[in-house]
């Protein structure tokens, strides 16, 4: 995740360096001067993500170590301007994620390790709060709610962890908060952002055995994620 964050900073810095002439000269060149006067506009995003689980336990000491791996994001953006500084955004996206879960108390990897892959379709409804534009740069905050469908949930499977099948509920609800910056180029607007995603509800489907060593001690299992998106309008 550190590598992704460094990449985000480098791209943002490089983009701002390219805009330096417009920002700091005596007579700045303002790109896309009327872009923000549009009532509705569209775009798309590409990005990276790391998904994790926040786990609460009934009895401490039998923890699950969750390691998130870098995934890929792609989606569309629709924006409706409500105010000079406020937009309502719908950003449906496809997210590929992977986690490695390691359970304590087992001697063999077959029982202790679960590779959990997920393909998410996310439906977020967000509010974007922009600052005053300065030259060709405009920072913003973004936040809202989303519903997410996990196409790899295994929710309909009758097998469970005894057969090495990790199961979660297909739908989850989350809240999202993040920040970014709009960079105005000659022909398009580029908006890198970083966001946190936090699940509301317990996703875990318990094993068939109520005393299962994999699920019986879990009070709740909720999604957490860090998203880095590069949006083009």
Automatic annotation (TrEMBL):
Keywords: Signal. Residues 38-203 form the Outer membrane protein beta-barrel domain. The keyword Signal applies. It comes from the Bacteria. This is PorT family protein. Residues 1-17 form the signal peptide. It holds the Pfam family OMP_b-brl_2. InterPro entries: Beta-barrel_OMP_2 (IPR025665). The lineage of its organism: Bacteria, Pseudomonadati, Bacteroidota, Flavobacteriia, Flavobacteriales. It comes from Flavobacterium silvisoli.
């Amino acid at each position: 995740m550190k590598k992704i964050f460094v990449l985000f900073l480098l791209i943002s810095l490089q983009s701002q360096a390219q805009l330096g002439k417009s920002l700091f000269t005596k007579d700045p060149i303002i790109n896309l001067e009327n872009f923000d006067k549009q009532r509705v506009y569209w775009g798309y995003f590409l990005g990276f993500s790391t998904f994790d689980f926040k786990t609460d336990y009934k009895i401490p000491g039998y923890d699950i170590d969750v390691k998130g791996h870098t995934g890929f994001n792609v989606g569309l953006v629709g924006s409706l301007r409500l105010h000079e500084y406020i937009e309502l955004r719908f950003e449906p996206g496809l997210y590929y994620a992977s986690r490695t879960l390691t359970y304590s108390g087992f001697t063999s990897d077959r029982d202790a390790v679960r590779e959990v892959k997920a393909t998410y379709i996310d439906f977020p409804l967000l509010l974007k709060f922009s600052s005053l534009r300065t030259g060709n740069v405009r920072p913003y905050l973004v936040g809202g709610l989303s519903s997410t469908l996990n196409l790899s949930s295994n929710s309909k499977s009758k097998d469970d962890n005894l057969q090495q099948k990790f199961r979660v509920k297909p739908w989850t609800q989350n809240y999202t908060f993040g920040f970014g910056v709009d960079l105005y180029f000659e022909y398009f607007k580029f908006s890198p952002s970083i966001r946190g995603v936090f699940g509301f509800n317990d996703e875990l489907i318990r094993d068939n055995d109520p005393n299962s060593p994999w699920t019986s001690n879990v009070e709740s299992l909720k999604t957490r994620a860090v998203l880095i998106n590069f949006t083009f309008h």
